Amino acid sequence: MIVRIFFVSFYSLLYWIYAPSFWFFLLIPFHIFMGPIHGFIVNWFGHKNGYRNYKELPDNSKNTLPIDLLMMGELYQNNHHKSPNKPKFSHRWFELDLGYLIMHLLHTLKVIRLV
After folding, report:
1. For 94-115, how does the pLDDT look when each residue is reduced to its tens digit (9 = 90+)?
2. Which residues are registered as beta bridge partners of 67?
3. What are the b/e assignments for 20-59, b being 16+ CB within 10 Å?
4. How many whole angstroms from its chain centre is CA 47?
5. Distance CA 73, CA 90 (A)
6. How many CB atoms lie under 10 A from the CB of residue 2?
7. Distance between CA atoms of 102 and 28, rounded to whole angstroms?
8. What CA–CA distance (Å, rounded) separates 19 from 46?
């Protein structure tokens, strides 16, 4: 709870300093609810609808979309449950993990380090 209060305060401060108009403060609720909504989408649809690359897993995880542009690869839940410690969620040739591609670019630019 304290972390949420910190982030709401932090975003409000950023808007107070940088927003060119008072109307931009209407965007603060989007920042507050963006994380929980993303988590809901990934956990609901990633275990409800889609296909399974690894049917032997003892859970209901599914890969929701063959090409996941909506959540940048986060909806490859079945692949993620097979290899939870790997940053790349795509396992088949047609699966596009944009999140990993961005991480790989940042690794190439030496901004982050993939292990």
Report:
1. 999 999 999 999 999 999 999 8
2. 96
3. eeeeeeeeeeeeeeeeeeeeeebeebbbeebebbeeeeee
4. 15
5. 7
6. 6
7. 26
8. 36
Closest by Cα among 29, 35, 27, 32 to 6:
32
Instruction: Locate 77 and state its tokens.
Output: 């839940």
Q: Which of 73, 51, 74 shows the shortest CA–CA distance to 62?
A: 51
pLDDT digits (tens, 9 = 90+) for 60-84: 999 998 888 888 999 999 999 999 9
pTM of the full structure = 0.75
Lookup: tokens for 16: 């107070």
Phi, psi of 76 (to 5 degrees): -90, 60
Q: Are 98 and 72 in contact (CB under 8 A)?
A: yes
Q: Give, in degrees to the nearest 5, the angle at Cα 6 between 2 and 9.
A: 135
What percent of the chain stands above pLDDT 70? 100
